[in-house]
Design goal:
single chain; 2 domains
């Protein structure tokens, strides 16, 4: 019987496949205990062991596995516990990262060879608690990321299909401007999606996995907006190119201007060259991928416009007229007799 059998069944998450293999390893350790140590196993832990080794075995949870391994740490011989310390500390560093491991080492944990065995057990008990906390929550964090990527990926895929159909339809009706804008929006949204993938993949895996789960859940809305903002930035960058606000060999330079009226939209002359059109699509993708590209470009354009205007002169404030009865700053009249 599980120690967590008081929980409702729908709230008990069973061990995944890799957790079951981990459980089998822990059960093998119990099977190889000397008889004098096996006799010290508490009755509740023995009940979990009986449930795990029954035929067929009962379904086990991460909590059951933690109870078994925690009891094993308290039961094993002193020499075994001391030799087990370096492995658990190395596993802690692998899971939580070097920075967190340095914080742990700064707390001056007991020396596994020289400190009292009770101090070593207590330290390893806390490490075991952190390790199992990570074991239980890391798969949840990974599953949440995968579901988020699949949802946004499906949304971007079907949006791309719709944009391509609309672009083809617009080109068939000589709506060249509309078709171009749709292609640029598609490139920008794809760039935003690739940026989103990198952002999710580069999320630090160390530290408390519960904090990472909360960050992904609370930041999901901003991730949904990445493809949309990429499409908007692509259109803005196209207008920047069209207005000649930036120039250079790496930018499209010979974009044909367009005019718009109530009717078909056509180019004023031949369409842009293939190289310029390719540069335009690539820069649209970059506008969605590098999220700060277009905002930083607009900031530089605003600063350039302010510098071109020069310093702003503030007009002097008009002097107020003298109040009635106030002394005017003038010399007395010439015929004024001064007292002797």
């Amino acid at each position: 019987m599980s120690l967590l059998n008081f929980l409702p069944k729908h709230n008990r998450e069973l061990l995944p496949d890799f957790g079951v293999r981990y459980l089998q390893h822990v059960l093998a350790e119990y099977a190889t205990l000397p008889p004098e140590l096996a006799a010290k196993i508490p009755a509740p832990v023995q009940a979990v062991l009986n449930a795990a080794t029954a035929s067929p075995p009962h379904a086990m949870t991460w909590g059951d596995l933690f109870v078994l391994e925690k009891s094993m740490l308290a039961t094993q011989s002193e020499l075994t516990v001391r030799r087990r310390a370096w492995g658990m500390r190395d596993a802690y560093r692998e899971l939580f990262g070097q920075k967190q491991y340095e914080v742990y080492m700064a707390s001056k944990p007991p020396n596994e060879n020289e400190s009292k065995i009770d101090d070593v057990r207590a330290d390893l008990d806390r490490l075991l608690d952190s390790l199992h906390w990570s074991y239980a929550l890391t798969p949840i964090r990974a599953g949440l990321r995968n579901r988020l990527i699949r949802f946004i990926g499906n949304w971007v895929f079907w949006s791309a299909i719709v944009l391509l159909i609309l672009a083809y339809w617009s080109a068939q009706y000589d709506q060249t401007l509309v078709a171009t804008l749709l292609i640029l929006m598609l490139a920008g949204s794809l760039g935003g999606f690739m940026s989103l993938l990198q952002r999710i993949q580069n999320t630090p895996t160390g530290g408390d996995p519960l904090i990472s789960i909360l960050e992904v859940q609370n930041g999901a809305f901003s991730l949904y907006l990445a493809p949309i903002s990429g499409a908007v930035f692509a259109v803005l960058l196209y207008l920047v190119f069209l207005g000649g606000l930036v120039s250079g060999v790496i930018f499209p330079e010979h974009l044909t201007h367009f005019h718009l009226w109530w009717g078909p939209v056509k180019w004023d002359g031949p369409p842009p060259a293939t190289a310029d059109y390719a540069k335009l699509v690539v820069w649209s993708f970059i506008a969605g991928f590098a999220e700060r590209l277009v905002p930083d470009t607009l900031d530089r354009l605003v600063n350039r416009a302010r510098e071109a205007e020069g310093p702003t002169k503030v007009p002097a404030a008009p002097q107020p007229p003298f109040a009635l009865g106030a002394l005017a700053p003038s010399s007395p009249p010439a015929d004024y007799d001064l007292p002797s």
